[in-house]
Amino acid sequence: MKLFNLFGKKAIAKPADTGKKDMTAEMEMYSGMRVEVTAQDGQFLFIAKLAGLRGNTAELHLRSAAGISPEEPMLVKIRGYSDYERKAVYLQGLVLPEGENLWRASELTVDEIKNARAFFRLSVDLDASLTAFGGFSAGEIPCRLLNISVGGAGVRSKERYQEGDKLLLKSRLRESAPESVMYCQVLRVEEKEDGQFEYGCQFLGLTEDDQDKISQNIFAAQLEKRRRS
Length: 229
What we know:
Blueprint (H helix, E strand, L loop, with lengths): L33 E6 L4 E11 L2 E6 L11 E9 L4 E13 L2 E13 L7 E11 L8 E8 L3 E6 L8 E6 L8 E12 L5 E7 L4 H21 L1
Antiparallel strand pairs: 1-2, 1-4, 2-3, 3-6, 4-5, 5-6, 7-8, 7-10, 8-9, 9-12, 10-11, 11-12
């Protein structure tokens, strides 16, 4: 374990004391939860399994490449979905790599617990297509992929779909990657002034491996986007 020079380096940012109820005793129920870790500026870092929760410390077993390797504890946001509470859980704390595919989290606090699922969402503008299931289908319809997360995607199309419609979404998230195919359901419909429609879609039937692949593609697409900007 490295010893940090307390006098020669700037102070490490720590979770703010918000005066919220201490929930560390209740945090052990989140052990085993799949989480997304992001920097304070919203940059997606990696997917991990939260394990070994003891008080306000835990292990993060990586399920995707991290792309960074800080030498000092880094303040991050951690979010996941608790099957026990059926709610999205938002944490923050300090993280530091400890070994291959293993990071250590400390000073964990619960920021918020919400009723809805929440995932990191990457804004994009990519060619895509939609194919409807059941009833009359016009076949593969071109559309624009506006954003994507592990849980779903936002798309824009001239075609009119209804809430509850099930669709097959195809898109190439990266130039060098094969085409991704996702089965989804329309949850939200918004008609725009130009006569097109924007849809909020939820992915269906994803396995944990499927989620990992989407996460890795999102992370790689984010890096490509940052390099171009």
